[in-house]
Design a protein that fits this description.
The structure holds 2 protein chains of 2 kinds. Chain A contains 13 helices and 8 strands. In chain A, strands 2-1-3-4 form a 4-stranded parallel beta sheet, sandwiched between helices. In chain A, helix 7 packs across helix 9 and helix 11 packs across helix 12. Chain B is an alpha/beta fold. Chain B folds into 3 domains: 292 residues, Rossmann fold; 87 residues, Alpha-helical ferredoxin (Fumarate Reductase Iron-sulfur Protein, Chain B, domain 2); 57 residues, no CATH class. Helices cover 53% and strands 10% of the residues of chain B. Chain B has 23 helices and 10 strands. In chain B, the strands form 2 sheets. In chain B, strands 1-10-7-4-2-3 form a 6-stranded parallel beta sheet, with helices on both faces. A 4-stranded mixed beta sheet of chain B has the order 8-5-6-9. The mean pLDDT of chain B is 96. Classes of the chains: A alpha/beta, B alpha/beta. Chains A and B meet through helix 1, helix 2, helix 3, helix 4 and helix 8 of A and helix 1, helix 15, helix 18, helix 19 and helix 20 of B.
Chain lengths: 240, 455
């Protein structure tokens, strides 16, 4: 099955390893990932800051790049939520783009959704190691409604122990431009999240959104904590 | 305490709040407790989602027909013997209430908890007219003694711990220091009891107004609300126009939702339904009841795209779960209403010019939407206000330029790839200027981005 891979601007620019891990996982489960070369960003930074024209420009470009009927897979709950839930609002006054936006919304999968519901990766006996805890990022959990899939995958790993985090779905303080506009609160929230992670005693923390993971990794660095922060794609791909 | 709005200094306010370790500890403990209690209280409510749908639909209906419901309430309440006053704005509300009190020679006023009275800054106005105004809700009493404003709409002194309250009481009331909440409550009760018995008038707010019976409804926990509304001969209630419920028969749905959402109680200790003043043969109640209906910009909000904020029933659940509110408390928002509902209402009621930094006071995490009992689309409303901020020219020039560049780069793969390379080249410099700012907290761009690793 051909799938279109949306790397996201953050993974593309800062965390290409998470993108490569996504490719390995998709191939392992029989999908044929294609990376549309002209892809850029879903438009979320502009949309969330109130710049609809810029967000529409990005979104329209996305719709062209990811045109067709193939499923779209992305290693980000936040970007998948943007396409599925906010694109229709951006194009509510443009019937033809609105129809395409709705179709794209139906075709897009956050990686763990695809791995569980389409690839049945949790039944494949993937290997893991050590102890792992999980941060449930906000848009993945509350906008996209993906709550169980990452847990299903993580608890299926043979050889690793999953340690639940208290208040796993509490915001880490990233918030896109929030981290730039109110950095003091952002850091305080990241610290609170880091303390929750440390309290689990896990040696690795994972999640489905590189923005949050980047923010968490920064808090870990500031606190001098030696807990590994890894995107769920990387963690799962290591067990192939 | 007078209300000098400080919303424009929001970031500065947050920095100060974050440095206050007592405040942060108190906020964390209280909001965690409310979160747990709320979850426990709703656990046995099997039809919660249907209940929220129903309450939401009732509130939608109220907003869709607000002028009609307000007229109906005025007629019903008048029939029941109350005198209803319409106040266009804060000044009109203050002056109306001062007039009612002054006409009857009232000097000593006891007050129940009312955020609308905070919104119109009632106390200082009455005090300036030579009246003594005593807040009788324990939390309100504490902050009145301290000369502060509420930092939470349900729990006004949420930012204080019991040692601070103990010291405050010792200082201001001349009692021996104690940090035992029971002892402190007894001290306040004794002081307030005397005030109740000698009061000329009571002022209260209201949680709801039933348009079919003309009743106002108060949910309280300390008994002070009932004293305020029934012991003095004169009762003045102030409420904002959107508090209407079509019928008293709609109340049970809200009685199931509001206390659980607010404090995690299945029901408040007191639910007072007040229909008109005391009639001959009735044993209790004020002899005279005045109801002041405040608009203060709500009719304008109703006509705009943020109207859904008027569905809010003031439970405070959104602030208890808000990561921003939990971190900095309510005073940082710089006006009457804090947290998610507050940042929206403040912007709408006081104007973008006086409050625009507040629209950024959200990570858009959606925790508020998850708990709102009447399904106010808080995140959508925040996004709407951010669009308005940009349109009305309150966004910084750097941000506007940056977003224009972003829009162009996001629509052009060539430009996007170029920006990626430039970011890599300039990263060391950006980082050295960084600190807590963005560049200092982000890793360097990868040497080879994903797009150049893909076939």
């Amino acid at each position: 099955m051909r799938v279109l891979l949306f790397g996201t601007c953050l993974v593309d620019t800062f965390f290409p390893e998470a993108g490569e891990a996504t490719v390995r996982l998709l191939r392992r489960f029989g999908a044929e990932p294609v990376f549309p070369k002209g892809q850029t960003c879903c438009g979320q930074p502009a949309f969330n800051a109130g710049y609809d024209a810029a967000a529409r420009a990005a979104a329209e470009h996305f719709l062209w790049e990811f045109d067709g009927d193939d499923p779209i897979v992305t290693p980000s709950g936040s970007c998948a939520a943007m396409v599925r839930h906010h694109y229709p609002r951006l194009f509510r006054d443009d019937p033809s783009l609105l129809a395409r936006a709705k179709r794209a919304g139906e075709r897009i999968y956050e990686l763990t959704q695809f791995l569980v519901h389409v690839a049945k990766a949790h039944e494949a006996g993937l290997r893991g190691k050590g102890t792992v805890t999980y941060h449930a990022s906000c848009h993945l959990t509350r906008t996209l409604g993906v709550r169980e899939e990452p847990l299903t995958l993580l608890s299926s790993l043979k050889g690793s122990t999953f340690l639940p985090m208290p208040d796993a779905a509490r915001c880490c303080g990233f918030g896109g431009t929030f981290m730039a506009k109110l950095p003091e609160i952002s850091c305080a929230l990241a610290d609170e999240k880091a303390a929750s992670i440390e309290a689990t005693g896990a040696d690795t923390v994972t999640g489905c959104d590189s923005g949050c993971l980047m923010n968490i990794a920064d808090a870990m660095r500031r606190r001098g904590t030696r807990i590994r922060v890894a995107h769920i794609a990387q963690l799962l791909a290591e067990g192939l | 305490m007078s209300h000098e709005q400080t919303s424009l200094a929001f970031r500065k306010n947050t920095v100060r709040a974050l440095e206050d370790s007592a405040l942060r500890a108190a906020m964390k403990q209280a909001t965690d407790t409310f979160g747990t209690k709320r979850a426990d209280a709703f656990a046995p409510v099997a039809d919660l989602e249907a209940l929220r749908d129903r309450a939401s639909a009732i509130r939608d209906d109220v907003l869709a027909n607000l002028p009609m419901y307000v007229d109906r309430f005025v007629a019903s309440a008048t029939r029941a013997g109350a005198v209803v006053h319409r106040a266009e704005d804060a000044a009109a509300a203050r002056e109306t209430i001062r007039g009612i009190l002054a006409d009857r020679g009232a000097r000593r006023i006891v007050k129940g908890k009312s955020m609308v009275s905070e919104e119109v800054d009632l106390n200082s106005h009455l005090e300036a007219a030579g009246m003594e105004v005593v807040e009788t809700d324990l939390g309100e009493y504490i902050i009145q003694l301290e000369g502060e404003t509420p930092s939470h709409i349900i729990v006004p002194a949420i930012h204080k711990n019991r040692r601070q309250v103990g010291r405050l009481f010792a200082d201001r009331l001349g009692v021996p220091y104690s940090d035992d909440p029971q002892v402190l409550t007894k001290i306040a009760r004794k002081a307030l009891r005397e005030k109740f018995l000698s009061a000329d008038a009571g002022i209260s707010g209201a949680n709801f107004a039933a348009t079919d019976t003309g009743s106002i409804v108060l949910l309280t926990n300390e008994g002070n609300g009932r004293m305020v509304t029934s012991v003095p001969p004169l009762h003045v209630a102030i409420l904002s126009v959107e508090k209407m419920l079509p019928s008293l028969a709609d109340l049970p749905a809200f009685l199931r939702l509001l206390p659980r959402s607010a404090t995690g109680q299945t029901i408040t200790s007191y639910v007072s339904v007040i229909t008109g003043p005391r009639t001959p043969g009735e044993a209790t109640g004020a002899k005279e009841l005045h109801i002041v209906l405040l608009d203060n910009g709500r009719t304008e909000i109703l006509a705009g795209e943020s109207r859904d904020i008027l569905k809010c029933i003031r439970c405070g659940a959104c602030m208890n779960v808000c990561p921003v509110y939990r971190s900095v408390g309510g005073h940082a928002y710089g006006w009457t209403y804090p947290g998610p509902m507050g940042m929206i209402l403040t912007t709408l009621l006081t104007g973008m010019r006086n409050s625009h930094p507040l629209v950024d006071a959200s990570t858009l995490c959606g925790a508020c939407v998850e708990v709102c009992p009447v399904r106010v689309p808080l995140v959508d409303l925040i996004l709407g206000l951010r669009r308005r901020k940009v349109c009305e020219g309150f966004a910084g020039r750097g941000e506007r330029r940056g977003m224009a560049v972003f829009g162009r780069a996001a629509a052009s793969p060539g430009l996007f790839a170029l920006a990626q390379r430039l970011a890599g080249a300039f990263w060391p410099l950006a980082r050295s200027l960084g600190g807590k700012d963005v560049a200092g907290r982000m890793p360097a761009p990868a040497k080879t981005p994903l797009r150049r690793r893909m076939p």
